[in-house]
């Protein structure tokens, strides 16, 4: 029987990274709960065994419930009835399978009925579920919003809301509005304090809200009358049990049909403050969005895996001129490129997740006790790395998911244009990944400061010191040559002092940095497991070199006068 975890050994490889020992030690606080909870691990080996067992369950349910239901869910989609969402029938079957397996609240503490697993493990689950159905993953994975409530809510809020999510209740983050998409500081949903009932009241509308009829919402609203910028915004918790919010309509989308994207109307809806006033956008949404962007990176990798699976299966089965089409260079080149981008993007995804895990665990420990000077340094280091890597992981993997979905259809030829093949759903589902939770262009904006301050260059320099087997030294030399050109490109653009030139070169510098970093990560993986990664290393190296050469040529040919041609 198929299993989307055990059938993909590359995922297990990422789970076995050496950094996991530090991550688990921090997450388990030195395994202090081993005598309090029967399910708590005794040591590192026990923890890893537990993670693998849980991922095996996720892989089994995804392969044998979620994936077989995907086409029916895509065809039916959710319905809006009397101001409420009714999911596609098979979506309820998926949700029940996940609930019965206890696959909610994976990262939450055991005292709230969670499983206390690292974000890296949760990222594995996200990837796996996305391979089966990216639309369903949107519903299931939004449980991750509870991370923000856990980080900034009160102990009393933790006790009320977290166990509900661990039991399978759904969540959403209600941020965007008809006149406030990426520009969240323009949010105008009104929050007023109701003195008589000692609660907040929300009035207004929200649009493009994923899973918008969820049980528990995190809502960005304007609490400071007379303000029009981000400093007047606060974060609120809305409980569907209290009423006051209706679904006006469900958007009719190109893809991710199983995931209801809603327009919501708030009518004096009762809510409670999460954290402090005025920090909704400045602090809380930034934390929420970084978690969401890591989730979309995982979703993108899952879609790339699905595209690869479908392309290989069809190319092996389809015969032309008396041979399987996978034997034709024009076809196997496309498939090898899909696999190479998948492996490189997955390496970037999990490196980012591990960085997030370490700084988040140390943040959590800091709420219990004062960190040591060494721990503070560690927290600072990994927080910066996580912030720098998240826009790379989200931006590059979402673009790769789109490219891989496109190539998967091309492998299918005319059949790929027919609705009975899954490749068209994968292609449609992938398209949103480079748009929501911050477009690729906004990922570039988030990352460019790490280009100009030299952080990516320092990361690349550090990776150059990682031991490399003699047989792979040629790859290392080629990556170093790419890095030299990248560093020269950065210095050349900075030296002009022209902000507009930097802005138009930003995407090119961003992709240069990302390609070089992914080459390094894939090389590190190849050193450890050549049987899994050597072929992809060779293919991705060629791809990255050509991409970096293209970006290098652009940066060195553009000047202030030529910008006018792009403006027109």
Tell me about this structure.
It is a single chain. This protein has 568 residues and is of the alpha+beta class. It folds into 3 domains: 312 residues, Butyryl-CoA Dehydrogenase, subunit A, domain 3 (Up-down Bundle); 109 residues, Butyryl-CoA Dehydrogenase, subunit A, domain 2 (Beta Barrel); 127 residues, Four Helix Bundle (Hemerythrin (Met), subunit A). 59% of the residues lie in helices and 11% in strands. The strands form 3 sheets. Strands 3, 4, 5, 6, 7, 8 and 9 form a 7-stranded mixed beta sheet that branches. A two-stranded antiparallel sheet has the order 1-2. Strands 10-11 form a two-stranded antiparallel ribbon. Helix 9 runs antiparallel to helix 12, helix 11 packs across helix 13 and helix 16 runs antiparallel to helix 17. The longest helix has 40 residues. The radius of gyration is 24 Å and the shape is globular. 49% of the residues are buried. The model has no long low-confidence stretch (mean pLDDT 96).
């Amino acid at each position: 029987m198929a299993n989307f975890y055990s059938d993909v050994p590359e995922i297990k490889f990422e789970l076995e990274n050496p950094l996991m020992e530090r991550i688990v030690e921090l997450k388990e606080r030195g395994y202090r709960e081993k005598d309090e909870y029967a399910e708590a691990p005794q040591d590192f080996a026990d923890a890893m065994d537990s993670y693998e067992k849980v991922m095996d369950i996720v892989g089994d349910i995804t392969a044998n419930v979620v994936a077989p239901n995907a086409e029916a869910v895509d065809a039916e989609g959710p319905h809006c009835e009397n101001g409420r969402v009714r999911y596609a029938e098979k979506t309820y079957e998926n949700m029940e399978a996940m609930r019965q397996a206890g696959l909610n609240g994976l990262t939450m503490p055991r005292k709230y009925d969670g499983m206390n697993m690292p974000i890296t493990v949760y990222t594995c689950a996200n990837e796996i579920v996305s391979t089966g159905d990216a639309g369903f993953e949107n519903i299931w994975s939004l449980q991750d919003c509870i991370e923000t409530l856990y980080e900034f809510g009160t102990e009393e809020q933790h006790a009320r809301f977290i166990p509900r999510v661990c039991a399978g209740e759904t969540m959403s983050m209600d941020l965007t509005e008809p006149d406030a998409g990426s520009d969240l500081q323009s949010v105008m949903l009104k929050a007023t304090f109701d003195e008589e009932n000692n609660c907040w009241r929300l009035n207004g509308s929200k649009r493009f809200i994923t899973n918008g009829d969820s049980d528990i919402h995190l809502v960005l609203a304007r609490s400071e009358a007379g303000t029009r910028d981000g400093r007047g915004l606060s974060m609120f918790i809305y409980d569907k049990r209290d009423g006051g919010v209706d679904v006006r309509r469900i958007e009719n989308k190109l893809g991710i049909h199983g995931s209801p994207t809603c327009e919501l109307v708030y009518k004096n809806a009762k809510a409670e403050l999460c954290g402090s006033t005025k920090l909704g956008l400045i602090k809380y949404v930034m934390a929420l969005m970084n978690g969401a962007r890591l989730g979309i990176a995982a979703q993108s990798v899952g879609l790339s895996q699905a595209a690869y699976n479908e392309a290989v299966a069809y190319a092996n089965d389809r015969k032309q001129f008396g041979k399987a089409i996978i034997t034709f260079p024009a076809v196997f080149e496309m498939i090898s490129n899909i696999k190479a981008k998948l492996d490189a993007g997955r390496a970037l995804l999990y490196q980012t997740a591990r960085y997030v895990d370490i700084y988040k665990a140390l943040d959590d420990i800091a709420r219990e006790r004062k960190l040591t000077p060494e721990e503070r340094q560690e927290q600072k280091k990994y927080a910066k790395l996580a912030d720098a890597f998240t826009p790379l992981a989200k931006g590059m993997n979402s673009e790769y998911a789109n490219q891989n979905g496109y190539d998967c259809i091309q492998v299918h030829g005319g059949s790929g244009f027919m609705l009975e093949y899954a490749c068209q759903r994968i292609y449609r589902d992938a398209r949103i990944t480079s748009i929501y939770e911050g477009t690729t262009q906004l990922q570039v904006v988030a990352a460019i400061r790490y280009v100009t301050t030299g952080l990516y260059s320092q990361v690349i320099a550090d990776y150059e010191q990682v031991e490399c087997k003699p047989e792979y030294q040629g790859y290392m030399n080629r990556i170093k040559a790419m890095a030299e050109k990248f560093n020269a490109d950065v210095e050349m653009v900075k030296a002009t002092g022209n902000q507009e030139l930097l802005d138009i070169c930003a995407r090119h510098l961003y992709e240069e940095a990302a390609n070089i970093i992914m080459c390094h990560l894939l090389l590190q993986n190849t050193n450890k497991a050549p049987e899994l990664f050597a072929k992809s290393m060779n293919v991705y190296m060629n791809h990255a070199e050509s991409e970096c050469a293209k970006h290098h040529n652009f940066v060195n040919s553009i000047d202030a006068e030529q910008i006018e041609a792009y403006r027109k």
